[in-house]
Amino acid sequence: MKIPFNRPFMTGRELWYIAQAHANAHLSGDGPFTKRCHAWLEQETRTKKALLTQSCTAALEMSALMLDLQPGDEVIMPSFTFVSTANAFVLRGAVPVFVDIRKDTLNIDERLIEAAITPRTKAICVVHYAGVSCEMDPIMDIAARHGIAVIEDAAQGIFSRYNGRPLGSIGQFGALSFHETKNVISGEGGALLVNDPAGVERAEIIREKGTNRSKFFRGQVDKYTWVDVGSSYLPGEIIAAFLAAQFEEAEAITARRLAMWDRYHAWAEPLERAGRLRRPIVPDNCTHNAHMYYLLLDDLADRTHFIETLKAKDIGAVFHYIPLHSSPAGMKYGRAHGGMSVTDSISDRLVRMPLWCGLEEHMDFVLETASAALAR
Ligand SMILES: *Cc1c(COP(=O)(O)O)cnc(C)c1O
Q1: Contact indicator for 280, 102 with CB cutoff of 8 Å
Q2: Rg of the chain over CA atoms, in angstroms?
Q3: Least C-beta-crowded within 10 Å: which of 129, 153, 221, 261?
Q4: In a domain, 6, yes or no
Q5: Mean pLDDT value of segment 164-176
Q6: Residue 155 Cα to ligand 1 middle (Å)
Q7: Which of 248, 276, 299 corresponds to the end of one domain?
Q8: Is the separation of the CB atoms in 134 and 104 below 8 Å?
């Protein structure tokens, strides 16, 4: 593939920071680079506590542990999402309850949430699709009224905002991803944002194998011992060193992505007016981070033709997600509440265009090829 769907962008400083981590001879987690990343994230997202994890999946698993979910408890979420949104809770024996998405943002339809709440509902896990926020004010209201938690799967949401507030900082917990397909990367990687000060100590314990190691190193306790459930969710310093270099360039990376996103959006405008496709919709109260540029085509056949035509020119365009409610594990472990017609339709019609730093010089060719693929 000459123009792949994704190509990880590296700033050049990653290797220098990794060399420093090497020289520091602190390779396990929570060394100086991890602390630097925590401070950057806390400032950037205005959250009480940011903790690096090995992935967004791990951060979601931590939030499921923090909620003390019991088998049979329910977590409301969209079906149009990546598997980790559901798996993190299924691992605790909880049941994902899928509700349909909005036609405009493709985010969970907040108007359908309340009817899906039962006495077993413990949380709502929202997903900010394409780095565009869910309608968090009504969602936080519903959760408060029913005494349930809100977890933000903000895997795609770094630098995005809802009414000025950074994504991941609004619910009880936020989970970020630094997987190489996201905007800011460390190969595999993620972070848990803990927005309730009362939850910080327990999050540190769960992340460090259920021990009070963090407190011990701060001199707050004189013994370091097993105090709670937990696992090993923290990344080593080599990953944190890589990520620290990315954070320094994160604004520049986002600016480049936004410029490409805007080019796609301007190119697609006449096609949308001609009824040939639908473009992404970003509500006025949302600032997005150009995580993704997608097109909505007429139907599955139209999309298949489009993807094949680009592929013949060595351009990678891809689709996702197979809805969780109709996937084998989703049917086994979860259930759908209400119809899923928007999810099913979007899943057949959505195509993601390549979007990565360095694609700039190929944009003319990509747009030309895409225009030809859409002609009829
Ligand atoms: C990428 C992604 C994840 C998983 O992130 P990892 O860091 O790979 O675990 C979870 N949820 C959503 C919505 C994602 O896009």
Answers
A1: no
A2: 21
A3: 221
A4: no
A5: 98
A6: 5
A7: 248
A8: no
**CATH number, residue 263:** 3.90.1150.10
3-state DSSP of 198-246: HHHHHHHHHHECCECHHHHHCCCCCCCCECCCCCECCCCHHHHHHHHHH
Cα 109 to Cα 16, 127, 279: the distances in Å are 45, 11, 19
Q: Of 217, 233, 248, which residue sits at a domain end? A: 248
**Are 190 and 61 within 8 A, CB to CB?**
no
Residue 7 falls inside a structural domain: no
152 φ, ψ (degrees, to nearest 5): -100, 115
Q: Between 363-374 and 237-273, two packed helices, what is the crossing angle to 10 degrees?
A: 40
* Protein residues whose CB sits closer than 6 Å to any atom of ligand 1: 55-57, 81-82, 84-85, 127, 153, 155-156, 177, 179, 190
The residue whose CB lies within 8 Å of the most ligand 1 atoms, and thus the one to mutate among 82, 183, 291, is 82
- Confidence at residue 376, expressed as pLDDT on a 0 to 100 scale: 80
Q: Is the peptide bond before 321 cis (omega within 30 degrees of 0)?
A: yes
% the chain with pLDDT above 90:
96
Q: Do 30 and 125 share a domain, yes or no?
A: yes
Angle at 206 between CA 291 and CA 94, to 5 degrees: 70
Per-residue DSSP letter, 359: G
CB environment 238-248: b (16+ within 10 A), e (fewer): bbbbbbbbbbe
- d(Cα 213, Cα 205) in Å, to the nearest integer? 7
User: What pLDDT digit, counting tens, does each position of 342-351 carry?
Assistant: 999 999 999 9
Sheet hosting strand 161-162, strand order edge to edge:
165-166, 161-162, 286-287
